[in-house]
Amino acid sequence: MPLIAGMSVLLGCQFLGEILVHGLQLPVPGPVVGMVVLLVGLMINGRVPTGLRTSGEGLLRYLTLLFVPAGVGIMVHFDLIKADFWPIIVTLVVSTALTLAVTAKVMAWLTRSMPRDPRDEWREERP
Q: Does position 112 have pLDDT exceeding 60, yes or no?
């Protein structure tokens, strides 16, 4: 029963995200808004319910199966990809480098803005 409840919560959040996207004319996919709705709900709740945890872990266990259609698509459309190979490679490299740089800056900013734990200084002073 907890598995059904957890899956219902996931599908309900996705449905609510779709409703919000269509109702507010947002340029974001409905499942993304649904994940934000789920995140807000989990933050308000303060913990992950057992059924939701079980459903999430079950979906993550088989996540690799979702890459099969993408792999088949690459094989089917290999000629199209080959025609635009270099623009695709440049885009992937630049976007990856940009993502790493932004992530590093955000991490540095978060690390500086967090209060230091006084116990860390004690640990550093010990031989």
A: yes
